[in-house]
Design a protein that fits this description.
Blueprint lengths: L2 H9 L4 H4 L19 E15 L2 E16 L14 E7 L3 H14 L1 H7 L4 H8 L3 E10 L7 E10 L1
Antiparallel strand pairs: 1-2, 1-4, 2-3, 4-5
Helix pairs in contact: 4-5
């Protein structure tokens, strides 16, 4: 047995047999990447940055759900979120017009970060945002090209 196996065995719960007797209904679901129901959430901004998607550049802001404060139950689009679930919002930067428009959208969304940290440079605001806990209104936006595809859209946030 190597050292890693020994360390894992030392960290395992003492009574695994009783844990195996649980119903699947009693075992919490793993956090996932979800399309959240529209509502109000306590979130943590966990990542941000540029990424390539289908030959386009996009700025992604990734969120982790800390708590659902209010969700539109019964909505047929989106899923109920549990703490630890994640979702992201993309801002495509494929043309000069979309770059200007989406930088303005991101700047407006993250204005509370700018004010709280006293920073004005776009790059600094983005860096300071990671790790921030926020209360946010989340809505859903339909894909213009594929009416069956929906995306989360954080409309407003307040720092906690």
């Amino acid at each position: 047995m190597n050292t890693n196996d020994q360390n894992q065995n030392q960290n395992a719960p003492a009574d695994l047999d009783s844990l195996y007797e649980q119903s699947l209904d009693d075992i919490p679901a793993l956090p996932g990447f979800k399309l959240p129901l529209p509502g109000v959430y306590k979130l943590k901004i966990v990542a941000q940055g540029l990424k390539d998607i289908n030959e386009s550049r996009a700025h992604e802001i990734q969120y982790e759900v800390l708590e659902t404060l209010e969700a539109q139950e019964g909505n047929t689009i989106g899923e109920a979120c549990n703490p630890g679930d994640k979702f992201s919002q993309l801002y495509f930067m494929s043309t000069q017009k979309s770059v200007s428009f989406n930088m303005s959208r991101i700047g407006e969304l993250l204005k509370p970060v700018s004010e709280a940290f006293g920073v004005k440079k776009f790059k600094d605001i983005l860096e300071k945002a990671v790790g921030c806990e926020v209360i946010a209104i989340v809505k859903l936006r339909q894909n213009k090209m594929n009416k069956e595809q929906w995306f989360p859209e954080v409309e407003e946030l307040q720092l906690q």
